[in-house]
Amino acid sequence: QGLKPIVSTESPALIFGTTTKLASDLPATDSFLGKNKVPDLQKLFQQADGLPVHLKRGVPDKLLYRTTMALTIGGTIYCLVALYMASQPRNQ
């Protein structure tokens, strides 16, 4: 009898009537209209000034770092207090 293909080799019909655009069909000028900031940021982050990367951009980074540390420490203290309260027997 021989082997016969179970699945049809023909491509299925389109489900949606729209076709997709290829990247080569898009105009090059419309894809990105801003300035490339990567080289400037690379220069900033690769400076040998002794600062860690997460503090290189100045005051906003310091504010975010300190806020994160305060929330972390506050959350840890809150969890320890809640654990202590849960471990105490209730007075009746």
TrEMBL record:
Record bears the keyword Nucleus: no
Entry membrane topology: Single-pass membrane protein
CDD domains linked to this entry: Cyt_c_Oxidase_VIIa
One CC-aspect GO term: mitochondrial inner membrane
TM region(s), chain numbering: 63-86
Gene Ontology process terms (BP): mitochondrial electron transport, cytochrome c to oxygen; mitochondrial respirasome assembly; regulation of oxidative phosphorylation
Annotated InterPro entries: COX7a, Cyt_c_oxidase_su7a-rel_mt, Cyt_c_oxidase_su7a_sf, Cytc_oxidase_su7a_met
Keywords in alphabetical order: Membrane, Mitochondrion, Mitochondrion inner membrane, Transit peptide, Transmembrane, Transmembrane helix
Keyword Mitochondrion in record: yes
Locations listed in the record: Mitochondrion inner membrane
Recorded family membership: Belongs to the cytochrome c oxidase VIIa family.
Protein name: Cytochrome c oxidase subunit 7A2-like, mitochondrial
Organism name: Cathartes aura (Turkey vulture)
